[in-house]
Structure formats: structure tokens, C-alpha cells
């Protein structure tokens, strides 16, 4: 049986940095341009880059039903996730809170897999799910206490989390036989079209072209190309559970980066929420250990 290896620091560190930097960079982007316009441009450029990579590598492109499944997965994973995240940040949700909510993806995915795909949830994963919910509640409670009122824009962030998790499950169930290079390009292109249509009805305009352009460029290069490539390599080296557990380190690094870039000083509630989220993700993505049976040893 193939045994997955631990993920080396030289691979883990770039993944955490690329993902963590995306949240404050996204906040800088939506401060200079409307969120859905920013998202549409990012996805369109990313789709173009991924398409070039797929064509250069001779990837087989999905057609028919496979193409439809790619489009559906893209709407969930990219359009809903980034539209929700950037829309929430544009309406005042801090980048560190956004990172914390999205870091709950492994835990929520495990819960959705149990409900929709009948996958078994161990006691450790149930504990991780509970801690994950507590982490979000503690952080949001701290934000309400600091601002004196509930920010309804957090619902967009939660929608982004739901889309991210549901998209992963949809990909697992319906897109398994599709080339990941051409599939990623098709998914991103479909998401770009939908978000682009929404952006046509969006109010506001670009207030700082240089800042918006730099933010989009960084998000495309580090998030859509380098970040995804490193993550897929980590899955190949250490397995999906170990790779997804790296996201537990994203919220604290996001908080560190958001401090000098955005002036967001981490609150005590946010620090406590990050600690709970880290524990939740570790428990929610831990590998299951099973005792060998007589039949399995024959």
C-alpha cells in the first residue's frame, strides 16, 4: 500500500504564504475597485493563464456533460467563494476574519461529506466540527462587540465558505475523470462569465487603477497559478488530509500580514478564534487509523 509522506517545509511554507497573502491583498483590491469587477477580472486572467498551461501540456478538454460539471464546480468553488469573500471585505469584514471563516473549509467539507455522501465522521472529526463552529462564533462575537452592531456582510463570507466546501465535494463526485489542467481552466472561465455578468449591474468604479491592478496581478500569480500548483504537489506528496491541514496556519499568518498592510490589529477574540480554528482543522483533517482485520492481513 502506498504510504504518503510528510510535506516538507520548503513546500508547506509557500502554500501558507500564498493563501494568507491573498486576503489582505484582496482587501486592498476591493478598496480600489468594485468587488465583483475585481473578481471577474481576476478569474478571467486566471482562466487565460490556466488555458495556456493546459494547451501547452496537451491536456484533453472536457466536453458535453463533463464540461457542464466543470462549469457547476467552478460556480461553487470560484464564483461563490471569491464573490462572497470580496463582497464581504468590501462591506467591512476584516481580512483576518475572512481568512478564519474560509479556513473552516476542511471541517465543513467533512460535515457535508457525511450528510451528502454518507462518509463516516469519527469522534475526532465531530470534535473538530464543534470547535470550528465555536471558533467562528467567538470571532464574530468579538467583531460585534468591537463594532457595536452586527455586520450583515458576514453572510457573504459564510456563503463563500459554503460554496468552497460544496464545490470541493462536487468536484470529487462528478469531475474525477477530467484532466485537472483543462478542468481548472474551464471552471475558472465559467465562474468569470457569471461574475462578469453580475459586475455589469454593480455600482461604483475603480478609484485607484495602480492599486487594483497590482492586487489582481498578485492574486492571479500567487493564488491561481503558484498557490494551486504548490497545493496539488502537496496533495501528491502528503495526501489530501495533510495538505488541507496546512490551511489551519493561514488565519494567523493573515492576521500578521493584515496588521502592517491594512492596519487591522488582531483582537483578543480573533486570537482565540484562530487558536480554536487551528485545533479544529487539525482534528477535522487527521488521518483515520484503523486496526487491521484478519481479512486485510491475508
Automatic annotation (TrEMBL):
Membrane topology type: Multi-pass membrane protein
Compartment(s) of residence: Membrane
Domain EamA: 12-140, 152-283
Assigned GO CC terms: membrane
Pfam families reported in the protein's UniProt record: EamA
Main location: membrane
Membrane-crossing segments per the record: 39-60, 67-89, 95-117, 124-146, 152-170, 182-201, 213-232, 244-262, 268-285
Source superkingdom: Bacteria
InterPro entries, alphabetized: AA-Vitamin_Transporters, EamA_dom, EmrE-like
Keywords: Membrane, Transmembrane, Transmembrane helix
Family listed: Belongs to the EamA transporter family.
Protein name: Drug/metabolite transporter (DMT)-like permease
Organism: Saccharopolyspora dendranthemae
Amino acid at each position: 500500500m502506498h504510504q504518503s509522506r510528510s510535506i516538507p517545509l520548503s513546500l508547506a511554507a509557500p502554500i501558507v504564504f500564498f493563501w494568507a497573502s491573498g486576503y489582505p491583498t484582496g482587501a486592498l483590491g476591493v478598496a480600489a475597485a468594485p468587488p465583483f469587477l475585481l473578481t471577474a477580472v481576476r478569474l478571467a486572467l486566471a482562466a487565460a493563464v490556466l488555458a495556456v498551461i493546459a494547451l501547452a501540456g496537451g491536456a484533453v478538454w472536457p466536453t458535453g456533460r463533463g464540461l457542464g460539471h466543470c462549469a457547476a464546480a467552478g460556480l461553487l468553488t470560484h464564483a461563490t467563494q471569491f464573490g462572497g469573500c470580496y463582497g464581504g471585505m468590501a462591506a467591512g469584514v476584516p481580512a483576518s476574519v475572512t481568512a478564519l471563516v474560509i479556513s473552516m473549509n476542511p471541517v465543513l467539507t467533512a460535515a457535508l461529506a457525511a450528510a451528502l455522501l454518507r462518509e463516516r465522521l469519527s469522534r475526532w472529526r465531530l470534535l473538530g466540527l464543534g470547535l470550528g463552529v465555536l471558533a467562528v462564533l467567538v470571532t464574530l462575537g468579538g467583531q460585534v462587540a468591537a463594532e457595536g452592531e452586527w455586520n450583515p456582510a458576514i453572510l457573504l463570507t459564510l456563503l463563500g465558505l459554503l460554496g468552497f466546501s460544496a464545490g470541493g465535494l462536487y468536484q470529487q463526485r462528478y469531475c474525477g475523470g477530467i484532466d485537472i489542467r483543462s478542468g481548472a481552466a474551464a471552471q475558472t472561465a465559467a465562474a468569470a462569465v457569471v461574475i462578469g455578468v453580475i459586475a455589469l449591474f454593480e455600482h461604483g468604479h475603480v478609484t485607484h487603477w495602480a492599486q487594483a491592478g497590482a492586487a489582481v496581478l498578485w492574486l492571479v500569480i500567487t493564488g491561481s497559478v503558484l498557490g494551486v500548483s504548490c497545493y496539488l504537489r502537496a496533495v501528491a506528496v502528503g495526501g489530501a488530509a495533510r495538505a488541507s491541514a496546512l490551511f489551519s496556519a493561514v488565519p494567523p499568518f493573515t492576521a500578521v500580514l493584515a496588521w502592517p498592510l491594512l492596519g487591522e490589529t488582531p483582537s483578543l477574540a480573533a486570537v482565540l478564534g484562530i487558536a480554536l480554528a487551528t485545533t479544529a482543522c487539525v482534528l477535522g483533517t487527521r488521518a483515520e487509523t484503523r486496526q487491521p482485520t484478519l481479512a486485510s492481513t491475508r
